[in-house]
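In keeping with the milestone schedule agreed at the kick-off meeting, the structural modelling team has produced records for the first pair of proteins. Each record is given below as a sequence line and a structure-token line. The laboratory manager (R.T.) confirmed that both were archived under the project's standard naming scheme.
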Amino acid sequence: MPGACSLSTHISLLETGEQFSLVKVDHKNNKTENGENFLAINPDGSIPTLKLASDHMITDCAGALHYLADHFWESGVSPEPETPARARMDDFLRDIEQQLHVQFEPLHQKVKDDAIRNAAIARLSAEFEKYENLFSDGRKYLLGREFSVADAYLFVAINWAGISGINIFRWPHIGDFGERMRARPSVLAALRAEGLLAD
């Protein structure tokens, strides 16, 4: 689903260098681009749905990112498992999922009630302020100088902010991070493949 949280898994898969197939899903009719009933593949209808070679499926964004971090950390998408740096990355994934991602729900659903919408924007602003303070120490990515799957997830939230009418450049360090991510070959490739970036 172009631009959805699955974009973070798409970016991270590209970063691993592993082979994978991308299948577009239309959530209006729950059909894949191949005409399959997506609910027959994943009854929850959630994305990303990461189908492994074993046919096992991971149907949660943070779960898919954790899987890639566990299995392909040597490609540079994650610190080594069972290290303090990996624990910090896991904390960021949890925070983005539970404190940032969920706040977009009223905006994604285009709720008309101004009070609900304004409350969601206020909560999001508080979350982005937290990340602005984090990046104020000069770090390039969440963990410092090295990219991780958590950065891909944060990038998606920044993208959603722009779509939702939130000026992310209110937070200059966050704005710079978003631009830095957009310059990564994996991000450019994923945005192009999902039809989110014109050539």
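The second protein of the pair:
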Amino acid sequence: MQNFETITLEKSAGVATVTMNRPDVHNAFNEVMIADLTTCFEGLNDDKEVRVIILQSAGQSFSAGADINWMKSMVSATQDENKADSERLAKLLRTINFNSKATIAKVQGLALGGGVGLVCCCDIVVATEDAKFGLTEAKLGLVPAVISPYVVDAMGTRHARRYFQTAEIFDANTAFRLGVVSELCTDAELGEKVSKQVKLLNSTGPYAKEIGKKLVMSVVGRTLPQQKKLDEYTTQVIAAVRVSDEGQKGLNAFLNKEKPQW
């Protein structure tokens, strides 16, 4: 089994459990975690023994979004470098969203920014009642561009227009109402609730699940080739915003622990 630096992978009875393992930074992701997750999900996509994938995290939070040191590199990077960086995240999200296997996100604590993107790429999301969600990029003068296709799919255009602009934190009940979360439970029930979904998924035909997922994607006009074209646009958007005056002001204010003067 392949070893990863920032995640762990366990397989048992057709279920693969992928655990983001950077609890000291609330599982914020950097270029290493993006690469690890991409490689892992690509391998699981082709693994004939795997039928269900659980994406979870160690520690208090699911994922707090971008790692602060990764964000520091964005400030000095050129627009082309920022685009290349964003394309790697876009590939990860495509790999999860269009994976041939059924995927379950197991969420506790914080899911912010790109963490919400990971959640929205999964087929089923089980979250604790005290989980918190946020699309907080606008507070930094940025936009949730690369994750936007998946977030809009989950919550719809009306809610996305609100949360992309206000950057407000919303609770698990709101996430459930918006469609970001499939099921809510207490901390103690989280494992049991996820196991129930695994049991349900294992009771259905593997090929039927795969075709069913592709059917949904096709009906809403979001096939893999179409997503790649859309990613070309979203990565251009975030690259341009990161190097803009407002993006630079917001990033520098955040890194210096200051409030940006809009």
